């Protein structure tokens, strides 16, 4: 395998000292998941990575980046010793960014960051070598790790940038120095740390501070806070591409048609007509895809090829993966559909998920219940601040919820929704997801369509696992939603 770095390279970049000479083919911060040849980076976060250096070396790590020699290591253990591991990783990220000729895309937004990152990986993948993180590595260690892992010969790199508190995005964007920055949307997420939607918009717009001179901002045109984003782009001297339904949009969304497992989109870019399909049901995917096509245009990629390739994208588990669970292997008509959207939740993403559930068609006459049902299992939405109760209660009035037959709620915040539901829709409420998971067989019947949606720490993924374990998923029927 081609060397990514050498120990001497890393030591020189980070101002450290290496105890041995070795080649590095990858970087890892998790001793349980590293590949042979990786440099293990002993970050100190919830746990001190120095406690796992011996384990990492035993698992095949080429060496370890440390700020001290852990006790019990052999005298000739391959180490790169620096003053502080995180700043050293940041220095390595800057060096990776400096040596690459890749066109860099920075992606942020309240909803759709990871989906858009993966869409961009897909649509750019046939037009060059694309580097992007496999997971949502979008924080103060994830962004430098993604950059430091970037091969020198990459053609494109897609860097996801997130935040939980004010002031987090700008330094990460300055580290990445993107040529193009995409803001997917601004929505009520992380309100606990911000006073208003406007505050969130200013923080998201901070990604534009890292743009290279003459860089391009790809911005939503339809939002109440779009003027904030546009003003920031102007202040940063960025070129602008707007996308959305507004007449001012450079990439203008037209008709969106939801099918069972696809979204067909008609749009325009100036005088050009765009017709493309996303192989996942969801109006929000049409908007994300349009923003990604605008990014492809800004990068100088072939827009026609990109519009064709957007149909190859599929979402990962936990972000709207749609699958069929067969309840009876003898009679495979006895099945239900499961929509796994258990990784994240805020009002905007819940709106989109409920719209997809409402558009789905259950199957009648094949289960114990004569009519197939639309069922929602909803876990707490977190970090919503003083509006938390009201935002949960407001879900009861969502237009799409009128087509949902039963709503089960998980967590103390979702109890507010459960109490606001009419008795005809009110399912079970539990404080802990594992209590509902234990009753999985009682929640569904053949012909049903079940959405499971919640913030990751609500642990509604346990309900997904329990529902999936009722049968065997038919891999050929897997479809995406989020």
TrEMBL record:
<feature type="domain" description="Mur ligase central">
    <location>
        <begin position="107"/>
        <end position="296"/>
    </location>
</feature>
<feature type="domain" description="Mur ligase C-terminal">
    <location>
        <begin position="336"/>
        <end position="455"/>
    </location>
</feature>
<comment type="similarity">
    <text>Belongs to the MurCDEF family. MurF subfamily.</text>
</comment>
<keyword id="KW-0436">Ligase</keyword>
<keyword id="KW-0131">Cell cycle</keyword>
<comment type="pathway">
    <text>Cell wall biogenesis; peptidoglycan biosynthesis.</text>
</comment>
<feature type="domain" description="Mur ligase N-terminal catalytic">
    <location>
        <begin position="24"/>
        <end position="96"/>
    </location>
</feature>
<dbReference type="InterPro" id="IPR004101">
    <property type="entry name" value="Mur_ligase_C"/>
</dbReference>
<dbReference type="InterPro" id="IPR036565">
    <property type="entry name" value="Mur-like_cat_sf"/>
</dbReference>
<dbReference type="Pfam" id="PF08245">
    <property type="entry name" value="Mur_ligase_M"/>
</dbReference>
<dbReference type="Pfam" id="PF01225">
    <property type="entry name" value="Mur_ligase"/>
</dbReference>
<dbReference type="InterPro" id="IPR051046">
    <property type="entry name" value="MurCDEF_CellWall_CoF430Synth"/>
</dbReference>
<keyword id="KW-0961">Cell wall biogenesis/degradation</keyword>
<keyword id="KW-0547">Nucleotide-binding</keyword>
<keyword id="KW-0133">Cell shape</keyword>
<dbReference type="InterPro" id="IPR005863">
    <property type="entry name" value="UDP-N-AcMur_synth"/>
</dbReference>
<dbReference type="GO" id="GO:0047480">
    <property type="term" value="F:UDP-N-acetylmuramoyl-tripeptide-D-alanyl-D-alanine ligase activity"/>
</dbReference>
<dbReference type="Pfam" id="PF02875">
    <property type="entry name" value="Mur_ligase_C"/>
</dbReference>
<feature type="binding site">
    <location>
        <begin position="109"/>
        <end position="115"/>
    </location>
    <ligand>
        <name>ATP</name>
    </ligand>
</feature>
<keyword id="KW-0963">Cytoplasm</keyword>
<keyword id="KW-0132">Cell division</keyword>
<dbReference type="InterPro" id="IPR036615">
    <property type="entry name" value="Mur_ligase_C_dom_sf"/>
</dbReference>
<dbReference type="InterPro" id="IPR013221">
    <property type="entry name" value="Mur_ligase_cen"/>
</dbReference>
<keyword id="KW-0573">Peptidoglycan synthesis</keyword>
<comment type="function">
    <text>Involved in cell wall formation. Catalyzes the final step in the synthesis of UDP-N-acetylmuramoyl-pentapeptide, the precursor of murein.</text>
</comment>
<protein>
    <recommendedName>
        <fullName>UDP-N-acetylmuramoyl-tripeptide--D-alanyl-D-alanine ligase</fullName>
        <ecNumber>6.3.2.10</ecNumber>
    </recommendedName>
</protein>
<dbReference type="InterPro" id="IPR035911">
    <property type="entry name" value="MurE/MurF_N"/>
</dbReference>
<keyword id="KW-0067">ATP-binding</keyword>
<dbReference type="InterPro" id="IPR000713">
    <property type="entry name" value="Mur_ligase_N"/>
</dbReference>
């Amino acid at each position: 395998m081609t060397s990514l770095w050498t120990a001497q390279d890393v030591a020189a970049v980070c101002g450290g000292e290496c105890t041995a000479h070795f080649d590095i083919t990858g970087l890892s911060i998790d001793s349980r998941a590293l590949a042979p040849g990786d440099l293990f980076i002993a970050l100190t976060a919830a746990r001190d990575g120095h406690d796992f250096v011996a384990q990492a070396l035993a698992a095949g790590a080429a060496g370890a980046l440390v700020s001290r020699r852990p006790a019990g290591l052999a005298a000739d253990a391959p180490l790169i010793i620096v003053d502080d591991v995180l700043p050293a990783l940041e220095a390595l990220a800057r060096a990776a960014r400096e040596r690459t000729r890749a066109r860099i895309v920075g992606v942020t937004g309240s909803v759709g960051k990871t989906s858009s990152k993966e869409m961009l990986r897909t649509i750019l993948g046939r037009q060059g070598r694309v580097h992007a993180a496999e997971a949502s590595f979008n924080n103060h260690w994830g962004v430098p790790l993604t950059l430091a892992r970037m091969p020198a010969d990459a053609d494109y790199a897609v860097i996801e940038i997130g935040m939980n508190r004010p002031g987090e995005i700008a330094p990460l964007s300055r580290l990445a120095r993107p040529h193009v920055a995409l803001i997917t949307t601004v929505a009520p997420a992380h309100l606990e740390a911000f006073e208003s939607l406007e505050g969130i918009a200013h923080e998201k717009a901070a990604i534009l501070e890292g743009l290279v001179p003459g860089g391009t901002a790809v911005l939503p045109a339809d939002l109440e806070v779009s003027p904030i984003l546009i003003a920031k782009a102007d202040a940063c001297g960025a070129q602008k591409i707007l996308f959305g339904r507004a007449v001012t949009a450079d990439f203008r969304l037209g008709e969106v048609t939801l099918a069972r497992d696809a979204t067909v989109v008609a749009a325009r870019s100036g005088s050009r007509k765009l017709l493309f399909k996303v192989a996942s049901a969801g109006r929000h995917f049409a908007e994300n895809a349009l923003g990604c096509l605008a990014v492809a245009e800004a990068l100088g990629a072939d827009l026609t090829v990109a519009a064709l390739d957007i149909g190859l994208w599929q979402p990962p588990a936990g972000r709207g993966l749609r699958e069929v669970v067969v309840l009876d292997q003898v009679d495979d008509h006895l099945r239900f559909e499961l929509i796994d959207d258990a990784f994240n939740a805020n009002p905007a993403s819940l709106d989109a998920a409920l719209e997809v559930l409402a558009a789905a068609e259950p199957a009648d006459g094949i289960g114990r219940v004569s009519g197939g049902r639309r069922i929602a299992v909803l876990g707490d939405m977190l970090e919503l601040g003083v509006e938390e109760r009201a935002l949960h209660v407001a879900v009861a009035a969502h237009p799409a919820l009128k087509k949902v037959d039963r709503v089960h709620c998980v967590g103390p915040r979702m109890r507010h929704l459960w109490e606001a539901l009419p008795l005809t829709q009110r399912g079970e409420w539990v404080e802990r997801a594992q209590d509902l998971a234990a009753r999985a067989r009682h929640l569904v019947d053949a012909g049903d369509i079940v959405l499971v949606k919640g913030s990751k720490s609500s642990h509604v993924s346990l309900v997904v696992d329990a529902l999936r374990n009722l049968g065997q998923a038919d891999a050929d029927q897997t479809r995406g939603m989020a």
